Amino acid sequence: MATPSHHQNAIPSTKKKKTHKNPEANFLYELNSCSKSKDLKGAISLYDSALSSNTRLNQSHFNTLLYLCSTFATDPDSKDLALRYGFRVFDHMMALNIHPNEASITSIARLSAAKGDGDYAFEMVKKLGDYQVSPRLRTYEPALFCFCQKLEAEKAYEVEEDIDKMGLSLEEPQIAALLKLSADTGRGERVYNYLHKLRRSVRWVSEETCKVLEDWFCCKASEIGSDVGSVKEAILRNGGGWHGLGWIGEGKWVVKKGNVKPNGRCCCCGEQLDCVDIDDVETEKFALSVAGLALEREVKANFREFQDWLEKNADYEAIVDGANIGLYQQNFAEGGFSVLQLNAVIKEMYTRSGNKWPLVILHNKRVRALLENPSHRKLVEEWMANGVLYTTPHGSNDDWYWLYATVKLRCLLVTNDEMRDHIFELLGSSFFLKWKERHQVRYTFLKGALKLQMPPAYSIVIQESEKGSWHVPIVCESDEESLRSWLCITKPGGCEDEGKTGSTMETCEIVDGPCCKSSENRNNEKCDDKTTSMTGKRKERSP
């Protein structure tokens, strides 16, 4: 008996190929396919066919066409076609009284800039307000870059002012373009200001931005000076790493590329880089934010009492998160609160700070339990006698107390708490990570032995010294910071190791200074990384 074939018994599929019920939807589907495959000619052919068949077009159709045209506006082979159809599509869109959105204007601005018409690109951006639409940074870019390339400085600065008015922030590509424009048109003060904008915006610069800086410093001499005292005061007030008072020194700049040792000393000029802190204004704002949040969540009388106490006892250089240390690695059967671990941290911080006791924040419930234990009572009483302990009251959260004390006293904080909860609460504080890098001391106990991880000896950010020199970190693919290249920019006489370089000071050169070796030698170089000093509170900073 014959067996029926599989095909004979197969149930016909009920699935149907996806179809579009109207020409408008079908046109958009095919347009999107052209957009994904970057098929400009195919999209133009579809557009012409849609016009012939009187297909009703909407904003999505026009935006897709404009985007494709703007994408090919800088392609030599397709530029003419892209420009011709791009403006034709936009004029058609406006004739149909279809309001453009931000994407539409960004595309037409790119087309205008590709044609060299920065004025029209900027005019289009300003018209967005007529449609109650806010521009984005990318909307301004075509006009800004066009003006920068054509050295139309005042027009570029006007675009920058408009960006600022809209509450948008420049990023490295825009700042670098404005810096190059200012350098090419001889506006030294503008270059200085953009260098500081770059410092605030990025931790390190791209190779392209580095080249812009090299070109400026290699062809420009500085003849501006500032009072040494005011420069030092400004650096302290700003948290270190910059003063913002203008160019310092006279003569040609000496530009070198090299590395920075783990202890923060530049291999090219021998200058010590700073571990940069937040400035006085940011510190005060941060302290007020923490206090405000704490007063909302804690018993007000208790936290205000702590604030008053801290005002009268403001000489601490380190705050210790007692619970975090005492409970470290204690999640085992016999584990509990480790007084030995906490005491080890207290003694180590005492030694490092030149025999000054740290302040340990610990909940009163925990302190009472320790005092009731005969083996711990004497040690805890010693802490109390030395002013080491502040006990937080019942129902309080220790975190607000040690965080506020550290910010207010501008000192070190010993804790492994990553403060993610606090970061969530303080999302408006963009300087939180910088503050944390500068003040947090992490720790480990390896077989009972304490090891502290102090804040870094220096910050990997653009730095301006009181001598007028600049150090600019360059993007690095390696995780090994000793391999990162830095741009070292100094003046003759302002470099500790200048006599060893053998470079002429009459003109600027890009040279390798001492320790500024080839990448092959850098891998073999061992730098001393012994830093024993505390890098916490700075008493000389203004209150």
TrEMBL record:
Q: Does the keyword Methyltransferase apply?
A: no
Record's compositionally biased regions (Basic and acidic residues): 519-531
Domain PROP1-like PPR span(s) in chain numbering: 15-222
What residue stretches are annotated with the PRORP domain? 261-488
State the InterPro entries in the record. Answer: PROP1-like_PPR_dom, PRORP_C, TPR-like_helical_dom_sf
Q: Please give the catalytic activity noted in the UniProt record.
A: Endonucleolytic cleavage of RNA, removing 5'-extranucleotides from tRNA precursor
Pfam families per record? PPR_long, PRORP
Cofactor requirements of the protein: Mg(2+)
| Compositional bias (Polar residues) | 1-12
| Single GO BP term | tRNA 5'-leader removal
Which controlled-vocabulary keywords does the entry list? Hydrolase, Magnesium, Manganese, Metal-binding, Nuclease, Repeat, tRNA processing, Zinc
Q: What is its EC number?
A: 3.1.26.5
- Gene3D superfamilies of this UniProt entry? 3.40.50.11980, Tetratricopeptide repeat domain (1.25.40.10)
Which segments carry the region annotation Disordered? 1-22, 516-543
Give one GO term, molecular function aspect: metal ion binding
Which family is this sequence assigned to? Belongs to the PPR family. P subfamily.
- Recorded protein name is ribonuclease P
